[in-house]
Amino acid sequence: MALVAKDNGNKDFKKVPAGIHIARCYLFADMGDQITEYSSGQHKVRIQWELLGNEPDGTPMTVEIDGVEKQMIIGKTYTLSLAETSALRKDLESWRGIPFTHSQLDGFEVKKIVGAYCMLAISHTQKDGRTYVNVTGVRPVSAEFRNEKPDPVNDVVYFDMTEPDWDAFNSLPDWIKENIKKSPQFAELQDLTNNIDDMEIPF
After folding, report:
1. What is the mean pLDDT of each run of 10 residues along the chain (203 residues)?
2. How confident is the model at residue 190, as a pLDDT?
3. Cα within 13 Å of Cα(152), Cβ side
4. Long-range CB contacts (within 8 A, 24+) of 195-203
């Protein structure tokens, strides 16, 4: 039988419900410069959250994957910029609840967001018969969760190509790793590793 491809529309895949949900940032990945049809090489980062609230019917926000119930997750890819019009600055300031100071705009350590809780605004859009799930806002934790936040589920993952943690890299989803490998920053890291391997170590 010949190999065929078809459009299944992801009709059976359980989607994060639209609305406002308690969430926790568990993953940050430096993806380096990414070349797309819309960009000639902007530095991108990926942020992912685990959804820790309940469905409208009161059941936990989980999804079955290969027969195992796992916490629902969602992510968003940003350009690494705190320019006034950048999406990253907009979401981080909304998440913090206050604008960045001038000194913070000169250099904000993004690692601080890993492990932080928030309220995620999720919306659904329809296109060509498909439903797309989007993060449309990131807000501070609401009053009902400030004193008692849900327990975390996923281990935190932070990958930064300026100080690469290869265990963290290996724990990233495959599609993120493949995109990172396409970046010039990753190629430079590989060249550096190869040069170290080729050095003569005297003792």
Report:
1. 41 81 97 82 95 87 90 96 95 96 91 97 92 95 92 96 95 96 92 54 51
2. 83
3. 14
4. none
Give CA–CA dist 179/45, Å, rounded: 11
Residue 90 near residue 79 (C-beta atoms within 8 A): no
Q: Which domain holds residue 157?
A: 19-196
Three-state SS at 111: helix
Tell me whether residue 171 is exposed, middle or buried, using C-beta atoms within 10 angstroms of its C-beta: 0 to 12, 13 to 18, 19 or more: middle
Is there a domain that residue 184 lies in?
Answer: yes
Q: How many structural domains comprise the chain?
A: 1
Q: Which of 110, 22, 115 is nearest to 72 (CA)?
A: 22
Residue 121 placed within a domain: yes
What is the per-residue pLDDT for 8? Answer: 43
Query: Where are any strands of DSSP class E within 36-151?
Result: 40-51, 62-65, 68-71, 73-79, 117-127, 130-139
Three-state DSSP class for residue 136 = strand
Assigned token pair, 184: 């010039």
